[in-house]
């Protein structure tokens, strides 16, 4: 606390990301990073463009990157917005599109950054409980609102909603913006990008951090109607003219060019996940369905908190959430390589047998 702080700062409770441990040799399965590195073509491009031109500012509008994203999804460049990680894209969207007189709606168990943005921008919100199976029930969101946001698949549960269900909701919720945060969509969930032509109030956000293995580079984007995109651009240009640096621009473009590498690595993660889920069940875990690159599971007898701390003693880092209490015994396991999951399973067996 300091008398020099602005009023809003006193009330902030910042988001706490998963630990980035300083120790080497840990098996790190706590922040949903991709076990496979970025495409070798991405790395080669970064190396090639690390030159004297770095003294120059990058393109403030990231036109070339927007074009490659637009071409990939078969939309127009004015339907694409890019930012410094999808967290930044989301922050800008909260300020640009979700600040109205009615409260915005999101699930009670979801990405914990949403309430943080609400505090920062002084946006009223109301949380809607997941059902007993931890699913989002969009019919419960049919009330006057200042906007709706949810991840698909949801985090940290991993449970996906079908395109059909989201479309049925969009048919009824026509007076406010609906943001679908598709950070994990590439690991087995259906994207709703195909709906943006039909629903002018739909904004879809994606990240390069998980499926494109570029968490360290900080790139994300949004796709939606040009009017929504223009609102995001206005906020961005009132805040930071150059959020994407020269190397990020090049790497993002290369990542979209090397589609076979992208599809291959996503496929490998999905395969490892399906196998891991079966093995977890055999160890008496109840596992929620996952359309993501992580699984959310609870052991039928041993408390999650104990398992997480014992795993840590063996050098394996996973994630657990104290709040809300309904999920406090669940563990979120990021899907790593086959080798990492094998070590994890053997360690779990050891812990559960002692
Ligand atoms: C990881 C994550 C993001 C943000 O990813 P960036 O690294 O900022 O691109 C957004 N939403 C959800 C639900 C996430 O889990």
From TrEMBL:
Pathway: Amino-acid biosynthesis; L-histidine biosynthesis; L-histidine from 5-phospho-alpha-D-ribose 1-diphosphate: step 7/9
Residue(s) carrying N6-(pyridoxal phosphate)lysine: 210
EC number assigned by the record: 2.6.1.9
Family of the protein in this entry: Belongs to the class-II pyridoxal-phosphate-dependent aminotransferase family. Histidinol-phosphate aminotransferase subfamily.
Quaternary structure (record): Homodimer.
Ranges of residues in domain Aminotransferase class I/classII large: 25-348
Keyword GTP-binding: no
Cofactor: pyridoxal 5'-phosphate
Keywords, ordered alphabetically: Amino-acid biosynthesis, Aminotransferase, Histidine biosynthesis, Pyridoxal phosphate, Transferase
Keyword DNA repair attributed: no
GO molecular function, one term: histidinol-phosphate transaminase activity
UniProt xrefs under HAMAP family: HisC_aminotrans_2 (MF_01023)
Species of provenance: Candidatus Methylopumilus rimovensis
Biological processes annotated in GO: L-histidine biosynthetic process
Signal peptide positions (record): none
Gene3D superfamilies named in the record: Aspartate Aminotransferase, domain 1 (3.90.1150.10), Type I PLP-dependent aspartate aminotransferase-like (Major domain) (3.40.640.10)
Catalytic reaction equation(s): L-histidinol phosphate + 2-oxoglutarate = 3-(imidazol-4-yl)-2-oxopropyl phosphate + L-glutamate
Any one Pfam family match given in the protein's UniProt record, by short name: Aminotran_1_2
Protein name: Histidinol-phosphate aminotransferase
InterPro entries named among the record's database cross-references: Aminotransferase_I/II_large, HisP_aminotrans, HistidinolP_aminotransfase, NHTrfase_class1_PyrdxlP-BS, PyrdxlP-dep_Trfase, PyrdxlP-dep_Trfase_major, PyrdxlP-dep_Trfase_small
């Amino acid at each position: 606390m300091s008398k020099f702080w602005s009023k809003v700062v006193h009330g902030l409770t910042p988001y706490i990301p998963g630990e980035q441990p300083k120790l080497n040799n840990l098996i790190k399965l706590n922040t949903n990073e991709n076990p496979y590195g970025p495409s070798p073509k991405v790395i080669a491009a970064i190396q090639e463009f690390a030159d004297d031109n770095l003294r120059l500012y990058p393109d403030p509008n990231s036109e070339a990157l927007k074009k490659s994203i637009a071409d990939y999804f078969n939309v127009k460049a004015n339907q694409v917005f890019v930012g410094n990680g999808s967290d930044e894209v989301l922050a800008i969207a909260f300020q640009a599109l979700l600040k109205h007189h009615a409260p915005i709606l999101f699930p009670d168990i979801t990405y914990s950054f949403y309430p943080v943005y609400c505090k920062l921008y002084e946006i009223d919100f109301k949380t809607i409980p997941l059902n007993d199976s931890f699913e989002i029930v969009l019919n419960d969101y049919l009330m006057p609102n200042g906007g709706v946001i949810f991840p698909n698949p949801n985090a940290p549960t991993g449970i996906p909603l079908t395109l059909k269900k989201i479309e049925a909701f969009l048919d009824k919720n026509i007076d406010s913006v609906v943001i679908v945060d598709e950070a994990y969509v590439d690991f087995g969930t259906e994207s709703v990008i195909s709906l943006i032509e039909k629903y002018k109030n739909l904004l879809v956000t994606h990240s390069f951090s998980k499926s494109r293995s570029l968490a360290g580079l900080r790139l994300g984007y949004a796709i939606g109607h040009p009017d929504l995109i223009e609102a995001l651009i206005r906020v961005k240009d009132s805040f930071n003219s150059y959020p994407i640096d020269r190397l990020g621009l090049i790497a993002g473009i290369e990542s979209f060019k090397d589609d076979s590498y992208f599809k291959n690595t996503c496929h490998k993660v999905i395969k490892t996940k399906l196998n891991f889920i079966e093995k977890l069940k055999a160890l008496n875990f109840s596992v929620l369905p996952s359309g993501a690159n992580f699984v959310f599971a609870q052991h039928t007898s041993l408390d999650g908190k104990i398992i997480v701390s014992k795993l840590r003693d063996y050098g394996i880092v996973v994630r657990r959430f104290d709040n809300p209490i309904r999920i406090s015994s669940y563990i979120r396991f990021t899907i790593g390589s086959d080798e990492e999951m094998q070590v994890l399973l053997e360690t779990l067996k050891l812990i559960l047998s002692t």
